[in-house]
């Protein structure tokens, strides 16, 4: 009978489930991973809830890093951040397929395997969105000097952005909010970024965000002016603009809002 | 002078952005730099686009002029001396403030500083140097800086500047020396090429310094580029593409940019206004050819000839070449060399590399090619897989050309009017102009 491990929608959750599935050493296809909240019941299946477990997830990470290498880990980590419900299944399938290879480090080249192809596709789409957002994120300066940005991404790209902006603004206090997931990446000057999950039903946060620094509105106005002026009107091409900068990013961007 | 003193930073930004918008090349690629922990900023090898303006061009850098005052009188330029336009100049401090504040909010990837010529080339470049020096040292800015070198600047100043900037570019302005004489009477070809050569030599020396001393300062790490205006002077595509090839080969340039001429002045030496808009299709074809030179191992002489000096309006340069060299095709995917695969329309340099890698593990068929990103609707006329073509097709120039024309090409808006035109009995005028220009049908 097939066993399906149900885990939380987070990297730790998925890796904890991988740990359980791996431990039982079943043959391929006899175990699966589903994300809690998106389970479609099947016949002849046993379901098992797996709680998040830091140390077990770390063991899986170590196992991937030593046996498959940094590049494969990168793909798997990015795939785990995807919004796709079948990501757990694909990740487990890829790891099980790698177990059979003579050179498991080349696993990502075996695109003929549907699980590997899926991981590759997910990782690419998460990577693309994260890359676009490294450019499209717009910070505003609050009264207390903190830089704050809102994003509404499809995938959970905050960890990718955290690493990028820590490199870029090591001496600034900044914070990015994922509005779809009520998650934050918070960076304190000179320290490492952290990921925080926090619900804010009363909207206290939003109230604080209204207190902007004295310069902020002026800078926003200058930037809007710049973006308007830089376009050559003889070459107007909104279709081209839309392919490069899809409309869904624009509500969070200074130059298109208001 | 009074006017300038009363001007706010917002007014200046508007004037000097408006004056800088005709510069192309807002790229931020070519440097990989991590932050050293003392300041702000980093660079990504591939570059990052931060926004896109209404004309669809990427906004990556804060593209501004230092000043739009100019002692020159180039006829195509909005800032020419004899034009009556509002003039403004930034101070080095204003440039620093704008760059830092925009960068902190992640509006931009860095600064692109160009300038008109105030008093003399050296005077202007000295002011630009002061701004960049302050940005790099006082503000510890480690983002991307692209600076324009003004021809006629002293060698010593350019060298100092090169250590602060990531990319330097000198505008070629017009493709030939003759055009330059006609439209930019104060500039000569020699004076433009001299700083290019200097930067090239200094970069070469710097490469050796870096090998010796790992921490040696980098000189223009992202290389140099240039741009030229297309359609203001009567050069042919053949001449232009030859100039570009020479620049890549002899000056080691990273990129040559082409800018479709937008008339901003009235002048007897400029082409008359036609109401057709800038020659965007021509610009597009030149960029396609430029990629063939840089990534696809084509030579300029293969793409165009003196007898047939302009690109086809209907077909892109690669398809055009393939149609004229049908004797090379069809190509067998499983055995053909990388260089030959690159020449097949519908196969890009990425998919060619994937094919070469994947065929080690097994024979490829058309289904596999599709997965690898090959555009089969274009490539099927030129390929065999295991000795078989995808469909029975005739290797005839007319037949293939007709079918390729049915495959809609993605063209920039405004440049696509004629490709999808409905045929009518009385409409052979277009075909007349096509055989003149393309000579394929």
Account of the protein in words:
Chain A: InterPro entries: DNA_repair_put, DUF4130. Chain A: Residues 90-255 form the DUF4130 domain. Chain A: This is TIGR03915 family putative DNA repair protein. The complex is a heterodimer of chains A (258) and B (441). Chain A has helices spanning 11-23, 54-68, 70-80, 87-99, 114-136, 158-168, 204-208, 216-230, 238-244; strands at 2-7, 31-35, 45-49, 140-141, 147-151, 174-178, 183-187, 194-197. Chain A has 258 residues and is α/β, with parallel strands linked by helices. Chain A folds into two domains: 2-128, no CATH class; 137-252, no CATH class. In chain A, the strands form two sheets. Chain A has a five-stranded mixed sheet with strand order 4-5-6-7-8, with helices on one face. In chain A, strands 2-1-3 form a three-stranded parallel sheet. In chain A, strand 5, helix 6 and strand 6 (174-178) form a beta-alpha-beta unit. The mean pLDDT of chain A is 91. Chain B has two domains: 2-303, TIM Barrel; 317-437, no CATH class. Helices cover 39% and strands 9% of the residues of chain B. Chain B contains 17 helices and ten strands. In chain B, helix 4 (121-137) runs parallel beside helix 5 (155-162) and helix 5 (155-162) crosses helix 7 (189-212). The model of chain B is unreliable at 416-420 and 427-441 (pLDDT under 50). Classes of the chains: A alpha/beta (258), B alpha/beta (441). Chains A and B meet through helix 5, strand 4, helix 6, helix 8 and helix 9 of A and helix 2, strand 1, strand 2 and helix 3 of B.
